[in-house]
Amino acid sequence: xxxVVVTGLGLVTPLAxxxxxxxxxxxxxxxxIREITRFxxxxxxxxxxxxxxxxxxxxxxxxxxxxxxxxxxxxxxxxGLMAVKDADLEITEENAQRVGVYVGAGIGGLxxxxxxxxxxxxxxxxxxxxxxxxxxxxxxxxxxxxIMTGAxxxxxxxxxxxxxxxxxxxxxxxLIQAGTVDAMIAGGTExxxxxxxxxxxxxxxxxxxxxDNPSEASRPFDRDRDGCVIGEGSGVLVLEELESAKSRGAxxxxxxxxxxxxxxxxxxxxxxxxxxxxxxxMNLALKDARLNAGDIDYINAHGTSTHFNDLYESMAINTVxxxxxxxxxxxxxxxxxxxxxxxxxGIEAVFTALSIARRIMPPTINHSSPGxxxxxxxVANTARESDIRAALSNSFGFGGTNAVLAMRRYEG
Length: 412
Known about the structure:
Blueprint lengths: L3 E9 L6 H9 L6 E2 L12 E2 L13 H4 L4 H17 L11 E6 L5 H14 L8 H5 L3 H10 L5 E2 L7 H14 L5 E8 L4 H9 L29 E9 H6 L6 E10 L12 H14 L8 E3 L6 H15 L7 E3 L2 H4 L6 H15 L1 E2 L22 E2 L4 E8 L3 E8 L4
Parallel strand pairs: 4-5, 4-6, 9-10, 9-13
Antiparallel strand pairs: 1-7, 1-8, 2-3, 6-7, 8-14, 11-12, 13-14
Helix pairs in contact: 3-6, 7-13, 10-11
């Protein structure tokens, strides 16, 4: 089986534009959650979110092309082009058919749907932009990125709620392993901070209402957590077959060595009791990577700051790692970014690769007192230097869909 390595990283997050700026902020324990500015939320029970600050796509996308893309596509294109540049990957006529794109979103162009529906009602069908349909379709995140990079290999998108980014990366990993391609640009994206989305998640009682203190609202694994916070942005990785990467002298952040995916088959929004599905999925990723539980030093957890996810994910980790769980470092970066839904797995895979490459674990911020049943080492509030040999990145989505990536340090 062909080995796969990570050679490029791109980030657009509620913390900052760019991989280095976002990484610095996450390591410093900063938070990107603020009052909503995207629309007037003054009458909403929830008035906070993780919006991308100071987003300027002009370096990457022309004004003409911007008009064809809702924000989730813009974020994917910018993060993807950043990752390709970071990898120093040149896509030419000779290799274009051996490079593919696999970037998904959980919801897609909901803000554009809301906007143009209002235009339809107020001004009639003649005022709808001809770009409306490609503006909102999820696979246009991959499609536009393919067009802009010239990548002519597989062009696909996963749509699996909050596991989307991780499934996209895992599926891209499989394509390289199988020899279909030599490189993939893969990740997740989302931008759904809109009235309908916020109202919908609020109706489910899924969101934190800590409006008076946004930076402390997302509290993964904490006793005082009261729900997740919607975030937006994109995380994209360049994955390459090892020998191909070595032949061009590419920098290698980490080796992507395993991928697990399965289903709870339990409930449309609540994880299976005691995290049984999540535990099976972590075991699948470990087996695929040919790793033992004792080989894992760090887990970037799904950690949504909701009651059942945090409790059951903690229980699942205890199930998989047994006595090792007590000494295993686990952190959720959603305290800093909020929950990017379909984009979450993308940015968290980037953070996991950087954790391995730079030997530092990002903290779980806003973690004061562990919640009931949350009995692990959550790297509370302060980043920690550590010689990470191998790590997992967990993502679990509505519909009971689970995805886990296993990464290890590349050692030649």
